[in-house]
Amino acid sequence: MQDTPENRAAAATPIDAGIEPGTLQLGINGKPYFHSGDATMPLLWFLRDVLRLTGTKYACGVGTCGACTVLVDGKAARACMVPMLEAAGREITTIEGLERDGLHPVQQAWIENDVVQCGYCQSGQIMAAVDLLRRKPRPSEDDIAQIGNLCRCGTYPRVRSAIQRAAELTRAKRT
Ligand code: FES
Ligand code: FES
Fold first, then answer.
1. Are 131 and 98 in contact (CB under 8 A)?
2. Within a 13 Å sphere around the CA of 72, how many CA atoms are in the beta-carbon half?
3. Do the Cβ atoms of 50 and 113 come closer than 8 Å?
4. Which of the 8 DSSP states describes residue 4?
5. Which of 151, 156, 160 most suits a substitution to test ligand 2, by most atoms within 8 Å of the C-beta?
6. Which ligand is nearest to the CA of 123?
7. Interatomic CA distance for residues 58 and 62, integer angstroms
8. What's the whole-model pTM score?
9. Which of 73, 112, 130, 174 has the greatest number of CB atoms lying within 10 Å of its CB?
10. CATH code of the region 5-94
11. CA distance 127 to 77
12. Which one of 1.10.150.20, 3.30.70.260, 3.90.79.10, 1.10.150.120 gives the CATH number of domain 105-170?
């Protein structure tokens, strides 16, 4: 079967569980959830308005700022641009589910570097950093610059330092 949103949705539809056809199933922070409403609704609405997982922020709503960044099957995605149909069958991780036991190395590095100012963009910054370090355990300054998440408070220098520190912590954790 081709990996298309429609096929994933069909495969994820829990018809055997007595739930009406067309219902979408997705995993969020390790738990299963169902959605039987508008399949074009952005994942961000489902997270914030339905589940009240308000750690993921709404800012531009058009995929440019990164405030709504979550992990979809481990990869950074802007939840305002992911329709529920595309989220179906995926595992979503939000800031609330990033680490179940203590702090994730990226969160630890954020605290050490006192990154946060107003805080609005920061869950998106952290989730984007997690994705970067998964792809690039030793990120260059260019790699970090390419993340592209916006911060109206201008915390960019501290974000850069924290990502390098998180890279060290992550490598130390692995050894
Ligand atoms: S709110 Fe999604 S990218 Fe800005
Ligand atoms: S810390 Fe205020 S927008 Fe980034």
1. no
2. 21
3. no
4. -
5. 151
6. 2
7. 10
8. 0.90
9. 130
10. 3.10.20.30
11. 9
12. 1.10.150.120
